[in-house]
Amino acid sequence: MESVDLLYVHWPTDAYDPGDTLPAFDEVRDRGWTDHVGVSNFDRDLLADAQEVLDAPIVANQIEMHPLLPPTGAMLSYCANHDVAPVAYSPLCRGDALELDEVVAVAEKHDLSPARVLIAWLADQSVPVVTKASGTDHIEDTLAGLDLELDDEDRARIDGVERRYRRFDRDGSPWN
Ligand SMILES: NC(=O)c1ccc[n+]([C@@H]2O[C@H](COP(=O)([O-])OP(=O)(O)OC[C@H]3O[C@@H](n4cnc5c(N)ncnc54)[C@H](OP(=O)(O)O)[C@@H]3O)[C@@H](O)[C@H]2O)c1
């Protein structure tokens, strides 16, 4: 492989220094090794700071999103206003969200799998997803979620999940 479509700054840990990290990403893009630059697990302040330093546009911020950790309006509107795609990782919450009563109820109503409902719920909010599956059966099932259109009752039911759970947490992971 000579280049990738999109290279992410994975997590703003202590090793992340915008003045060092981001120019290196610009250089990688200038050399043609990546077409685009993204970030992951950035809150709005970190995102705004990175946009100041980077020459390349930030095309995506990949963050954990599912009904137990729903996307906030503030993050979605920031992304919409700055042409950054808010990409959801772990959209199934590594399987935990498949068992939520609200998700199962919507799945039973449409006679579809809970995974499809979870993907449809994010797609409905214009959020692209990266999920993971070990075999083609799960990949095909999950992809088919893009064809499911939720109605207001479905949305209200899933938005009504009150429990909060962040599966991936480092240093308080403040994005919102
Ligand atoms: N940027 C970050 O900090 C970060 C952090 C974590 C993850 N990620 C990325 O997010 C992506 C996915 O995250 P993830 O693996 O944590 O969680 P996930 O996609 O929410 O869940 C994966 C789990 O769900 C199961 N599954 C997948 N499709 C299914 C279906 N249709 N029906 C039933 N079960 C299904 C998989 O089982 P099988 O394996 O049996 O198919 C696997 O156990 C990965 O690409 C990862 O790189 C990014």
UniProtKB/TrEMBL annotation:
Residues covered by the NADP-dependent oxidoreductase domain = 2-95, 100-161
- SUPFAM superfamilies hit by this protein: NAD(P)-linked oxidoreductase
Q: Which Gene3D superfamilies match?
A: NADP-dependent oxidoreductase domain
* Superkingdom in the source lineage: Archaea
Record GO terms (molecular function): oxidoreductase activity
Q: What is this protein called?
A: Aldo/keto reductase
Lineage of origin: Archaea, Methanobacteriati, Methanobacteriota, Stenosarchaea group, Halobacteria
